[in-house]
Amino acid sequence: MHQEQHGPLAGFTVGVTAARRADELGALLQRRGAAVAHAPALRIVPLADDTELLAATKDLVADAPDIVVATTAIGFRGWLEAADGWGYGEELVACLRGVQVLARGPKVKGAVRAAGLTEEWSPASDSMAEVLDRLLEQGVEGRRIGLQLHGEPLPGFVEALREGGATVVVVPVYRWMPPEDLGPLDRLIDLTVTRSLDALTFTSAPAGASLLARAESRGLLPELLAALNHDVLSACVGPVTALPLQAHGIDTVQPARFRLGPLVQLLCQELPARARTLPVAGRRVEIRGQAVLVDGELRPVPPAGMSLLNCLARRPGWVVSRGDLLRALPGAGRDEHAVETAMARLRSALGAPKLIQTVVKRGYRLALDPESDAKYADG
């Protein structure tokens, strides 16, 4: 049996923070072998008070803009439905028919056309950065721009247009809110802090901000940041999504194309590259996030066992004392018997007891193949 049969993400656990399209992202990850832990970090709700949206709609109908940017299909439809409810629907559509409409990506383009309108331009990439570049290249000095938002304002987007000399009318349709049930998000934070995840995915900036805010309110922000800085990969769909994490000093990765497919492909490269492959007792042992491939066979390992195995693998072939192994066990206290119990379960999970040798009165070591000793002599 070869590892390709398991998929490139076999043995890795990936957290999903998305509220929208979470099922789609989860399915893409599972198809490639990953275990998925999902907790929406936020929910999208219509504005509790429509005053801002009504004011923006009246403003645009009374003084037509030169350009309108539609950023999401659900938000654009929500705007037209709200305007209909106030008796401004026909006026708004007539207003939009006479202006340059930019639609961010194919879904938004579909919503624009369903309203009987035609977009002048739409980026292939779903990228707001591309929309901004196009507007600035055209020149926005003295131009009036309506910007339909979905949730929080886009970092830097409005500022860049205003610096370019544009008047920007912001059209807020929905807001991001914390999830009503915080239990799943708390569990996702706990999984991250205990390194039970190998990667955490983000598809919107507010999701990252919400996760960090919740960790802070629980007093877990330092532990969360330590996990994301050293052990759990932060994978963001694009640079704007990464901003709240980067503001806390977290290194992130993002694909060149800001979509779910390329995000998953990026994880398929990044996570296997972090695996350790060692020749042990005549076997090929690949240590992954939450499982081990032994000669290509996937062997799930309990968390305590992975902690011991990772500790042994840091110095392959060297004896690691029971005391050092005990310190690597989360929440084990001072009882060295916990090491023996976890070691017995680890050997059983690996299905090959000879991979780990007991060195009497000293500790344990990985049974590194003799021809590999020179390679790992420096520990």
Would you write up a description of this structure?
It contains 15 helices and 17 strands. It has 3 domains: 3-42 and 179-273, Rossmann fold, CATH 3.40.50; 45-176, Rossmann fold; 276-372, Orthogonal Bundle (Arc Repressor Mutant, subunit A), CATH 1.10.10.10. It is α/β, with parallel strands linked by helices and 379 residues long. The chain has a 5-stranded parallel sheet, sandwiched between helices. A 4-stranded parallel sheet has the order 5-4-6-7, sandwiched between helices. The protein starts with 12 loop residues before the first strand and ends in a 13-residue tail after the last strand. Helices cover 42% and strands 19% of the residues. Helix 9 (205-217) packs parallel to helix 11 (239-246).
List the topology elements.
Blueprint: E1 13-16, H1 22-31, E2 35-38, E3 43-46, H2 51-62, E4 67-70, H3 73-85, H4 89-97, E5 100-103, H5 106-114, H6 128-138, E6 144-149, H7 157-163, E7 167-172, E8 174-177, H8 183-193, E9 199-202, H9 205-217, H10 221-230, E10 233-236, H11 239-246, E11 252-253, H12 260-273, E12 276-280, E13 283-287, E14 291-294, E15 297-300, H13 303-314, H14 322-328, H15 337-350, E16 356-359, E17 363-366
Parallel strand pairs: 1-2, 1-9, 4-5, 4-6, 6-7, 9-10, 10-11
Antiparallel strand pairs: 3-8, 12-13, 13-14, 14-15, 16-17
Helix pairs in contact: 3-4, 3-5, 8-10, 9-11, 13-14, 13-15
